[in-house]
Amino acid sequence: MTDARIVPTTAPVGAVVENVDLSAELDDPTFAQIETAYANHAVLVFRDQLLTPERLIAFTQRFGDIERYARHHYAHPDHPELLLISNIVEDGRNIGLADAGATWHTDMSYVKIPPRGSILYAREIPYLQGQPLGDTLFASTAAAYDDLSPATKDLLENRRTTHSYEGKHARRAALGKSNRKPLSAAEREALPPTDHPVIRTHAQTGRKCIYVVDGECDGITGLPDAEATSILADLAARCTRPDYTYRHRWRVNDVVMWDNCLVQHLAIQDYALPERRLLWRTTITGTVPS
């Protein structure tokens, strides 16, 4: 058994996992230690990892099946399980998803069964004057829930809101953070809005969290529209308060994984070509939110 060391960050979310080599097959006790840390800390950081695509895929599969991203033209050319996150342009087109994470969000909350989590492996990181660019912020939606008043918790219990893929990217476009084309009729039919609980319960730990994304959610069951709009805006802003947030400064060969129930995240896009950024992403299938 590897003597893994779990070092929590100073934020209410996140921990660094030391003395673990993800390029090797993990024994069951070590993996159980990582699984427990993942459930408790929601964001895990593994530094200085040297992974092949096969090893990243194998590590991901220890947590569950891999979900492939719908926009398959951004997949790794030899490993469709890997989504490329990149600003690199080859032959006149981006090789990967360039606007990933441009606003606060939780991955794919607009589908009926959102992914349990996501894993990023840093292959190239942009720098300016020796300092890394493209940090990622992770905010604890569980800490945000804990600090709600008892009356607000009671008001929101068992209520639902509608998540929309189209709404998400319309907001990003309005903010100048996405140049994606409007949805086609076929895409709109394939990605219809879906309802989820406003207050979600974590499948592994039973911990409660706020499951509301700014610009992506509309309406709350049983509440007037004006009241719902105000509450949703307050909840979204509350989730991403700086005191609930861990800021990750990337290094090449970092592996970072996060829980899509307990956190939201934001990619800081403070870099541009010729500074290159390339990460491999895998996505773990989840369960229906409850």
List strands and helices in order, with pairings:
Elements: E1 5-8, E2 15-18, H1 28-41, E3 43-46, H2 53-61, E4 83-86, E5 89-90, E6 93-94, E7 117-124, E8 127-128, E9 131-132, E10 136-140, H3 141-146, H4 150-156, E11 160-163, H5 165-174, H6 185-190, E12 194-197, E13 199-201, E14 208-210, E15 217-218, H7 225-239, E16 245-248, E17 255-259, E18 263-267, E19 278-284
Mean pLDDT: 90
Number of strands: 19
Q: How much of the polypeptide forms β-strand, as a percent range?
A: 25-35%
How many domain modules? 2
Could you spell the SSE succession in H and E letters? EEHEHEEEEEEEHHEHHEEEEHEEEE
| Main sheet attributes: strand count, strand direction, barrel closure | 7 strands, mixed
Report on the structure:
It contains seven helices and 19 strands. With 290 residues, the protein is of the alpha+beta class. It folds into two domains: 5-127 and 250-260 and 270-284, 4-Layer Sandwich (Double-stranded beta-helix); 140-239, Clavaminate synthase-like (Double-stranded beta-helix). Strands 1-2-3-17-7-19-4 form a seven-stranded mixed β-sheet, covered by helices on one side. A three-stranded antiparallel β-sheet has the order 16-10-18. A hairpin with a 2-residue loop joins strand 5 (89-90) and strand 6. The radius of gyration is 19 Å and the shape is globular.
